[in-house]
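User: I'm curious whether this sequence folds into something compact or stays loose and floppy. Could you predict its structure so I can see for myself?
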Amino acid sequence: MERIIIKVNSGESLPYNEAELLFEGMVRGELSDSQIASALIAIKLRRETVDEVSALVATLDRHKRRLAITRRGTVDTCGTGGDGKSSVNVSTAVSVILCSLGIPVVKHGNRAQSGAVGSADILAGLGFDLGYGGSSPEEFFSAHGYVFMPAPDYHPAMKRIAPVRRELKVPTIFNFAGPLINPADPEFQIIGINRRDRIDFIGRVLEKLGRRNVTVYSSRDGYDEVSPSGETECLSIGDGAPRRFTIDPSDYFTPFPMPVARDLREATRLFLDGLSGENEPLGNLFALNAALALRSMNHCGMRDGYHMAREHINQGQPCHTLEKLTGSIGSPVSLPGA
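Assistant: Here's the prediction. I'll summarize afterward.
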């Protein structure tokens, strides 16, 4: 192990087998915090390789607690995060919209690691019981067609590494792996990443791992979401050759700057305003991102998906679904501390 640590800290890339040994050592507690931190920063600075990300995913997959779900057609909207822009929680809103459309959602996520507010922060703040007290995640999914899986609950191997990641305050190779280790192994995925120059890279990782029915995307203005202000580049991994396409928000609405959420209260207000349609531009943004998921699942094309999601928002269906998920039937969900 010492030889591998020296090698990676010297700026050398690791072949698959050595990368597996390194990450296995991390999750088993065989490395000190300083060794973990130095390795993660060294890998980040000279850029991650396909072998290294694939080895990390395989390692974490072996150690994860799997969620036994047999329903077909499940989807996850978990992205890498780490764009450093503290933008509104689009992927979480999309997951609720998809559930309101009758699509089974197995949402993987976490509390904020390098940003301001994570998907778990939003849902917990609105009253979603992340511990499923009195029930189980499987029973909740069976009843609602939706489950949220907080990463720490399903990846005990990450417990040793999580404090180091929080201390580093920057995205690392674990951000790339996060969306690829969903405990429910969804049939479909959309994965937003914060580095457009790495779309093809993640595509190669997916192919090495044998994954299908996944769309990887990143906006030209640096978001891990379909942007409301600039074009977003997409790569779809299916049974044939990867397919590329671009989403231009001006084809759907008047472009606008991505809203910024500086704290949980502000993030929650934006989340609810967009999901309810009270904030029309945000509702448009959520609908456009939902359309990408619908396209990726072969439900419909982008334009039809956008109008379907937009109409659903206008009818109040996503907010009604959110009330059911958070146990707030009869009393609208409200801002934390309100």
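Summary: The beta strands are 75-76, 105-109, 146-150, 188-192, 214-219, 232-237, 243-247. The chain has a mean pLDDT of 92.
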